[in-house]
Design goal:
By secondary structure, the chain is mainly α. The protein has helices at residues 20-45, 51-97, 99-112, 117-139, 151-175, 181-203, 209-236. α1 (20-45) packs parallel to α7 (209-236).
């Protein structure tokens, strides 16, 4: 669908937007894996059950969560891909049937961006002469190589990152004594969330403190709430 002209500059600028598609899915999956599975095992642990039951609950949470993330991402991004394909088909038909209208439309886009009228029309002609569909897809529809939907990539990234994140609270079942499990797992996972938030911000070129504190706060809130629920159900049952 897209081609990329390779231009060589003396000083290359560093941009981060090309990482947005995989970074979003990976960060979302890892955060969800840590928070949901750690909350699950902590909630079960506070219900005063044994390590075997905690492990079973954690493994079940990991498997179901990873499959849910993959399926959800695939369905969601596939819907976006279907819309993109429909727009592409429509654009191909319009270029075939009304090329002059499409030329005027592209020229008007450049005019609105600040290009002088005659120059905008000439630029539109030259751009369409090279690859009419690609230029309309990019400048009219706003679809680029970076923003184009990739369902399989999104599904795999989400499932894999969820599994990686969910592995931490599962490992803690074996790493920490039962009597210290809840507090040790909570602190470990909150720390991991902070590290993950900092890494995601660093990769995306943003400041690291606020994203790290944000994810740590909501992770701690989720774990605390499920611990209260687990404690309540443990007493009631």
């Amino acid at each position: 669908m897209f081609t990329r002209d390779r231009l060589i500059y003396k000083d290359k600028e560093k941009h981060y937007v090309n990482r947005s598609s995989w970074l979003r899915a990976a960060v979302l999956g890892a955060n969800d894996g840590i928070i949901s599975v750690s909350s699950l095992v902590i909630g079960v642990a506070t219900a005063a059950v044994g390590s075997k039951e905690i492990l079973i609950a954690g493994v079940a949470g990991l498997v179901s969560g990873a499959m849910s993330m993959a399926a959800g991402e695939y369905v969601s991004v596939s819907s976006q891909a279907d819309l993109e394909q429909a727009d592409l088909s429509r654009e191909k038909q319009e270029l075939k049937e009304t090329p002059e209208n499409e030329l005027d439309e592209l020229a008007n886009i450049y005019i609105l961006r600040g290009v002088e009228k005659n120059l905008a029309r000439e630029v539109a002609k030259q751009m369409m002469a090279k690859d009419a569909l690609q230029v309309h897809v990019r400048d009219e529809l706003g679809i680029t190589e970076i923003t184009a939907a990739k369902p399989l990539q999104a599904a795999f990234a989400s499932a894999f990152s969820f599994t990686c994140g969910a592995s931490a609270p599962l490992i803690s079942i074996f790493a920490f004594p039962r009597e210290y499990f809840v507090i040790a797992t909570s602190l470990t996972c909150i720390l991991l969330l902070g590290i993950l938030g900092s890494m995601a911000a660093k990769i995306g070129g943003a400041k690291i403190l606020v994203p790290a504190l944000r994810v740590m706060f909501w992770g701690a809130a989720a774990m605390g709430f499920t611990a209260l629920i687990g404690s309540f159900l443990g007493v009631q049952l």
